[in-house]
Specification:
mainly alpha, Serine Threonine Protein Phosphatase 5, Tetratricopeptide repeat, two-stranded antiparallel ribbon, 4 strands
Length: about 375
């Protein structure tokens, strides 16, 4: 019967379809998306507006993608995505007072300024020296023996607290800024630390203020001597010795000259400076050690003179032998020539029938 009425079949199919659509819409309306509410500590159903917001964020991400160096990332300048993703960040936990103190100390230690001599000197009259011109290429060489300069007179402790020394130099820099003495002391501080570049820059700054300061010249010479710039070191040391006031002791200048001349191999001149330094500062053990070492080493100047004398004598003997041989050769050639001449005259007289005695008498008469 139903097969004979197609309109009834269509009507039934329409009713079933509408029922299915309505059931799906109800189920979708009744279903909820769940999310974690961090403020209340609960899991709640997400409202429709939130779902719409998420959809907008996803579209915002897709629209604002940026490709840099072949990598895909989201442009963080979009305000909507930052608002949504901020809810995923971890909550901040308040730090205790001890942790805050430790954090402050760490930040302060990282932000601690380096003890320098301020703005670099533009130029000095010693910048032509090769060791100063190449100051940015030098290796770091610590000089712990320089710490004896900062030892307190009469102090029982031989060690020098570098932290305390640094604080004192900071204080001196603030109180007595722009003085060659302070810059000289900071340069010696970095000599102990082994920062060659900073020490040279501080000595340059001091020389830009006081170009003929003997202490600064000597300290800079010591730095260049350790770097094996012997020509520069001996120039600065001699300059320091000339500029040293007569009333001040110059034993360190003579000791430095002795070390440089010893490195050159000029032992005789070096020993003179070492003895002069020992006279001005008796009991200084490094000077005594240098003298003992040089006394056990033969002087190269004496060896050179000896070789020169031996070579001169050998050349004289060879010249005499050659001269005597040449003289004997000349005498023998003259004798042979005379004999050949006499024989030729005799043969000629025989052929001509002349009496040889007459020939002799003619020669005597002539």
């Amino acid at each position: 019967m139903t097969c004979d009425l197609p309109c009834v079949s269509y009507m039934a199919l329409y009713i079933v379809s509408m029922h299915i659509v309505n059931s799906n819409s109800r189920s979708s309306a009744g279903s909820n998306h769940w999310k974690l509410n961090i403020d209340e500590g609960k899991v709640q159903a997400e409202e429709e507006s939130d779902n719409k917001n998420i959809d907008d964020v996803v579209m915002d991400i897709l629209k604002n993608k940026v490709i840099e160096n072949g990598e895909w990332r989201v442009d963080r300048r979009t305000t909507q995505s930052e608002t949504v993703f901020s809810s995923c960040e971890a909550p901040t936990v308040p730090l205790s007072s001890k942790e805050q103190t430790d954090t402050a100390k760490t930040v302060n230690s990282k932000e601690k300024k380096v003890l320098t001599c301020g703005k670099l000197a533009n130029s000095t009259q010693y910048d032509h020296l090769r060791g100063i011109a190449n100051r940015n290429e030098h290796a770091h060489i610590p000089e712990p023996e320089v710490a004896m300069i900062f030892r307190k007179k009469g102090g029982k402790n031989a060690e020098v607290d570098m932290n305390e020394l640094e604080e004192r130099l900071w204080k001196a820099k603030k109180e007595k800024s722009k003085t060659s003495h302070v810059y000289n002391q900071i340069g010696n501080f970095w000599r102990i630390k082994g920062n060659t570049q900073l020490s040279i820059e501080c000595f340059r700054k001091a020389l830009s203020i006081s170009p003929n300061n003997p202490d600064v010249l000597l300290n800079l010479a010591r730095v260049l001597f350790n770097l094996q710039y012997l020509d520069d070191a001996i120039f600065l040391t001699r300059r320091s010795l000339v500029m040293q006031p007569p009333e001040q002791n110059s034993w360190l200048q003579h000791f430095t000259l002795g070390e440089i001349l010893k490195a050159y191999g000029h032992y005789q001149e070096a020993s003179l400076h070492f003895r002069h330094a020992l006279d001005l500062n008796p009991g200084f053990q490094p000077t005594q050690a240098h003298l003992r070492e040089m006394e056990g080493t033969p002087s190269p100047s004496v060896t050179q003179y000896t070789l020169f004398i031996i070579l001169f004598l050998v050349l004289g003997v060879i010249f005499g032998v050659i001269t005597s041989i040449e003289a004997n050769f000349d005498d023998s050639s003259e004798v042979k020539t005379q004999r050949h001449f006499n024989r030729a005259m005799a043969m000629r007289s025989i052929k001509l029938g002349i009496n040889p005695r007459l020939i002799r008498m003619r020669k005597l008469n002539c």
